[in-house]
Amino acid sequence: xxxxxxxxxxxxxxxxxxxxxxxxxxxxxxxxxxxxxxxxxxxxxxxxxxxxxxxxxxxxxxxxxxxxxxxxxxxxxxxxxxxxxxxxxxxxxxxxxxxxxxxxxxxxxxxxxxxxxxxxxxxxxxxxxxxxxxxxxxxxxxxxxxxxxxxxxxxxxxxxxxxxxxxxxxxxxxxxxxxxxxxxxxxxxxxxxxxxxxxxxxxxxxxxxxxxxxxxxxxxxxxxxxxxxxxxxxxxxxxxxxxxxxxxxxxxx
Amino acid sequence: xxxxxxxxxxxxxxxxxxxxxxxxxxxxxxxxxxxxxxxxxxxxxxxxxxxxxxxxxxxxxxxxxxxxxxxxxxxxxxxxxxxxxxxxxxxxxxxxxxxxxxxxxxxxxxxxxxxxxxxxxxxxxxxxxxxxxxxxxxxxxxxxxxxxxxxxxxxxxxxxxxxxxxxxxx
Lengths: 253, 170
Description:
The complex is a heterodimer. Chain A is of the alpha+beta class. Chain A is 42% helix and 20% strand. Chain A has a 7-stranded antiparallel beta sheet with strand order 1-2-3-4-7-6-5, sandwiched between helices. The termini of chain A are far apart. Residues 86-91 and 166-170 of chain B have low confidence and may be disordered. Chain B has helices spanning 3-10, 12-22, 27-43, 54-75, 95-110, 113-123, 129-136, 140-159. Chains A and B meet through α1, α3, α5, β5 and α7 of A and α1, α2, α3, α5 and α6 of B.
């Protein structure tokens, strides 16, 4: 009776996905025996499913980042201590996280190691500092940007964020893995601080879009623009960070 | 830890795999998405009914978080996401296969968002069309037709010649 049954493309797809009822499955099997073209489509869909597993399955066995825990929140003090230890360890081992063989890690790892992680570390060290948050204060802004530009061998600017409620506090020069970096600090009236971290790096003059990440309550928004990588960090929500970054980006270009 | 929380933890690898593929290989953004999903799941844990499908529930939350993010992004300034690249390991005799998988990854990244979601839920997670229809809140017939369109698109892209295949040796 198989020649009375119409087999649609949906049937072929559902068959490849193993989603047919046993009866319908038998009918499709009978159909495939006589229709090599349809059998080839099924085979192609099955191969596609297999290939997708080959690409993405390595994620399943990756070590799960510590921020993805479902445990009840531990006391803040311990979380801060743990995050600092974690960052230190990150530096010590140079972010030798097990790279998955197939998966898409190159850019992300470069940004993580050279930009996000040192920027987050610098932010966590200096933004709570009361007496010495910066090396050169904002009243010497001209000197500050000239000095940082000279040391980083790139034109460093200190964007004006007063429209968004942040005043420049000042900045400092920092070591950053293999090069130097600049950190500019801004403060809101209520005392909340954000930092802008700038360094030139290993990213072959790429230009990237804004990317967002988060480290234990610190939001990090970063992008690469030619030789320089930028990261804006703060304990503010994602949207505010986007707005600040937009504002900064526009002034730099 | 409650048994239910323990059971959620067991799905983290699946959620990460899905998010990674959904956000085109961007590790940081995808783990962020998983984190948002877990936070939301925990805050609504009381709404989960014993006996219903926990995995489907988690993926529904993931979809909602993702859809909200997409809505916010399309309303505001455009932020294009990077497509992470596949790291090629050579000297294995499997370079051709690696290139093929890299191309496939890029082709999947280029699919429309809704098509990519459906394809991943079916092909990677092995969810039934009916479950996917519930997760995404669309009719089952739409799931099937969009899935079919996604696959045909991939077939088309994969059949195109790729002139830029230069073997990279690490």
